């Protein structure tokens, strides 16, 4: 086997490459006065891309990889990980004569391992049919062997059938948990049409609650639903009498191979919006959002001053109760702890304290709470029933109640 130097997976090159920079390996052949037998990134790329694909046994799982000339890689696994294939990007870089860097964004399919995940391979040798490496973080052996396109397709079909069998057997439980709530969106505009929440009682009677805005009125309506799992490709969730904005939706389909939901009406698509995803946004990349006082439910109409969900850490709901003489404006921050429950689809806000901003002019929190519309607004936000939160196109973030007609939106 040819002596190798090192290949490491590094996100840095991917970022540069994805920003439009020239593929770095195109310019590396003549980089410096390096020895003839050094490992060149271009050689590694040729090796990765000229065979049908690669497989690797690691942590009790067989992984499969297909690399393309344009910097894309598809990774999959055998039936040990019942997750669909991951399509991502890879890039190559080098450090002197002894280090060559190969990046798979997020590790591809390896991200689903419970432990010993790797983003970096340290390659110690290769031939036309094998790459010998160890993981950079955990130091475990990671040997890639070349496979044909036919072998890859056979592995893909075995995996597809395994996913179908599992999802069909677990369909009812999955519909009660992972798929129990989400959004219906306009297929052409991506705008919000309705929120759905499925439930099943002890006698196995299913219902689906549809929540939608009719003008400024938030309406919740329950419909009877029956589930048929006799088909080998999909489960059919038949809904009795459902219309969304005047358009009939007679059924949802749960596809076993992809794990997705779709509708029988092409006008709508299903968005499996998770409250945990919203929570990650709220606790990490959240930017201050201003409550749109002109587009809010009637019960909360009449907010006199601007309200913000700010980007402080911890987060605050900022309320200005008004002017207190001599042009002094004072602001009250109701400090928030936020949690999420994917089973209910709700985000839960808890008021954990008061943060006075620009000083305090008396019992400012008491002043806010003494104004009925502000007190109602805060009671809605801090309800133990939680709230559903979702983005509507690129302009607004909606906050709606799962049980009442209260709602408001914020500007993005």
TrEMBL record:
Keyword Signal: yes
Alphabetical UniProt keywords: Signal
Annotated signal sequence range: 1-18
Signal among keywords: yes
Protein name from the UniProt record: DUF4302 domain-containing protein
Source species, domain of life: Bacteria
Gene source species: Bacteroides finegoldii
PROSITE patterns (alphabetical): PROKAR_LIPOPROTEIN (PS51257)
UniProt cross-references to Pfam families, sorted A to Z: DUF4302
Lineage, top ranks: Bacteria, Pseudomonadati, Bacteroidota, Bacteroidia, Bacteroidales
InterPro entries given in the database record: DUF4302
């Amino acid at each position: 086997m040819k002596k190798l130097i090192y290949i490491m997976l590094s996100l840095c090159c991917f970022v540069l490459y994805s920003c439009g920079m020239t593929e770095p390996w195109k310019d590396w052949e003549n980089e410096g006065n390096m020895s003839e037998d050094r490992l060149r990134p271009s050689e590694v790329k040729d090796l990765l891309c000229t065979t049908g694909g690669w497989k690797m046994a690691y942590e009790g799982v067989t992984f499969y990889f297909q690399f393309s000339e344009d910097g894309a890689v598809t990774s999959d696994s055998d039936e040990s990980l019942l997750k669909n294939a991951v399509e991502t990007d890879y890039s190559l870089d080098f450090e002197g004569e002894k280090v060559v860097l190969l990046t798979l964004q997020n590790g591809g399919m390896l991200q689903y391992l419970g432990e010993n995940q790797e983003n970096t391979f340290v390659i110690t040798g290769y031939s036309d049919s094998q790459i010998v490496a160890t993981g950079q973080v955990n130091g475990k052996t990671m040997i890639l062997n070349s496979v044909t396109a036919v072998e890859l397709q056979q592995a893909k079909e075995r995996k597809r059938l395994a996913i179908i069998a599992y999802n069909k057997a677990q369909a009812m439980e999955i519909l009660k948990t992972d798929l129990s709530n989400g959004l219906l969106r306009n297929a052409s505009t991506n705008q919000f049409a309705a929120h759905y929440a499925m439930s099943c009682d002890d006698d196995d009677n299913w219902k689906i609650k549809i929540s939608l805005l009719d003008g400024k009125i938030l309406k919740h309506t329950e419909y009877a639903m029956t589930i048929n799992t006799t088909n080998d490709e999909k489960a059919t969730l038949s809904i009795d009498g459902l219309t969304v904005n005047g358009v009939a939706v007679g059924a949802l389909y749960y596809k076993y191979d992809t794990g997705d939901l779709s509708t029988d009406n092409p006008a709508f698509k299903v968005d499996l919006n998770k409250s945990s995803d919203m929570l990650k946004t709220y606790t990490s990349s959240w930017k201050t959002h201003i409550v749109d006082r002109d587009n809010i439910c009637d019960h909360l109409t009449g907010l006199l001053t601007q309200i913000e969900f700010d980007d402080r850490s911890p987060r605050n709901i900022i309320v200005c109760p008004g002017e207190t003489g001599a042009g002094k404006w004072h602001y009250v921050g109701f400090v928030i702890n936020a949690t999420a429950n994917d089973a209910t689809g709700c985000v839960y806000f808890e008021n954990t304290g008061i943060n006075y901003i620009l000083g305090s002019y008396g019992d400012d929190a008491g002043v806010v709470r003494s104004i009925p519309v502000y007190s109602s607004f805060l009671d809605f936000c801090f309800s133990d029933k939680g709230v559903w939160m979702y983005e509507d196109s690129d302009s607004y973030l909606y906050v709606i109640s799962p049980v009442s007609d209260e709602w408001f939106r914020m500007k993005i």
